[in-house]
Design a protein that fits this description.
alpha+beta, DNA polymerase, domain 1, 5-stranded mixed beta sheet, 6 helices
């Protein structure tokens, strides 16, 4: 066990942890900040991303003691007095939150990008966002809603992405009528000689 001192979401932390601990383990198990999710635990999916001194890192393989004396930001630190961060609100506006497992990592990665660009006085482009998020996996949103959300949070006006949809196949919880269905299913089932797939009932 060794002493780990760092600042997490503006709060000074001073705890004893094993030297083998990864940052994600300290955040989730020792500090109970479970907003940081674990996906692959191999630095492949980006779900566990947090910011360390403003730099996006995959916390599942980031040794906790590399954060000694550092400033760590997690998803829990974004809202302020119940008011959502611009990124969080934009993700809601654009439907970029679905199953939610990858959302914290996407938002923290995007925050690192926006903070870096703002500090340099540079505008954020869609290509910047695609590059920043290229190692963050999301199997629900298709990414365009995520990209639009980050653009909105950067100050750009972006209309919500609403994909085209087809006519629903059910109405009030009941299947729509099938014009090809047998009009006498009971007759078909009760007549053994008509059960053959090659034989239709006399009403069809």
């Amino acid at each position: 066990m060794s002493r780990l001192k760092m600042t997490v979401n503006g709060v000074a932390i001073d705890i004893d942890v094993p030297e083998s601990r990864y940052l994600s383990e300290v955040l989730r198990e020792d500090l109970r900040l479970t907003g940081t999710k674990i996906g692959c635990a191999e630095a492949e999916c980006g779900i566990c991303t947090v910011l360390v001194d403003g730099i996006a890192v995959v916390s599942c393989v980031f040794p906790a003691f590399k954060a000694q004396g550092a400033r760590v930001e997690t998803i829990e630190g974004l809202s302020n007095n119940g008011r959502l961060h611009a990124l969080q609100q934009a993700f809601l506006d654009h439907g970029a939150v679905q199953c939610g497992i990858c959302t914290p990592g996407l938002i923290m990665t995007a925050k690192g990008l926006l903070d870096t660009k703002n500090a340099a006085g540079e505008a954020v482009t869609e290509n910047d966002i695609r590059t920043a998020l290229k190692d963050s996996y999301c199997r629900c949103t298709g990414y365009q809603s995520v990209i639009n959300a980050v653009l909105q949070a950067s100050g750009e006006e972006v209309a919500p992405y609403i994909p085209e949809t087809g006519t629903p196949g059910t109405a009030v919880g009941k299947p729509r009528p099938n014009p090809n269905a047998c009009p006498m299913p009971g007759y078909f089932q009760s007549t053994p000689r008509l059960r053959s797939a090659s034989t239709a009932c006399t009403q069809c």
